[in-house]
Amino acid sequence: MNRRLEVPPVRVEARVRRFTSAERWIHRTTAALMGICVATAACLYVPALAELVGRRALVVTVHKWTGLLLPLPVLAGLASRAFRADLGRLNRWGPHDRVWLRAARRRTPGTRPAAKFNAGQKLYASWIAGATLVMLATGLMMWFTHLTPLMWRTSATFVHDWLALTIGIVLAGHIGMALGDPEARRGLRTGSVSKEWADREHPLWRP
Predict the structure, then answer these.
(1) Sign of torsion, CA 109 113 116 122?
(2) How many Cβ atoms from other residues are within 10 Å of residue 61's Cβ?
């Protein structure tokens, strides 16, 4: 007697669209420029790295122009309707965000309600945007020394240096969070995420 081999059905993972190609390129370009800024800043302020790399004048030039170009991907991205919509979501807070922050602060288990972006992502986006603008303003004061009084330049140098250190620490935390969530990274890489992940991590999001 011939027996037919039953092949189990292949389970197709349901996926939902999270980011457009324009949004992914904005993120990648901004991340690359920010990475260069942080790396060149480290080469300028850490003696061991300064000795290893050398060519301080070139590093300064790269740091200046990279910092100047840093806001451009976001400004160019305003031409994308999807990007503008996501900026609106990042700037919109609701009662569920307070619940998410309270649960994160107390490290309580259970559901943390979030729409497309959770409260932590909104805080990070707001903080890094403000920090970038402050770094740009203070950097320009340090670059064009003839435009501002000495006291302003001294204060700008102090703010620029310490805020740069803070940005480095916050970016390290951001990267650490990303490394702990492979599906979130996949969403930024491919534009889509699994529906299971979306329902678990962003239950209020309706793609």
Answers:
(1) negative
(2) 12
- Token look-up 């309270």 returns 102
Burial class (CB in 10 A: 0-12, 13-18, 19+), 112: buried
As a whole number of angstroms, the distance between CA 164 and CA 46 comes to 13
pLDDT tens for each residue of 99-149: 999 988 888 776 789 999 999 999 999 999 999 999 999 999 998 888 888
Look up residue 183 and give its amino acid: E
User: How do residues 4-46 score in pLDDT, each as one tens digit?
Assistant: 556 555 566 789 999 999 999 999 999 999 999 999 999 988 8
User: How far is residue 143's CA from residue 69's CA, in Å, rounded to a whole number?
Assistant: 14
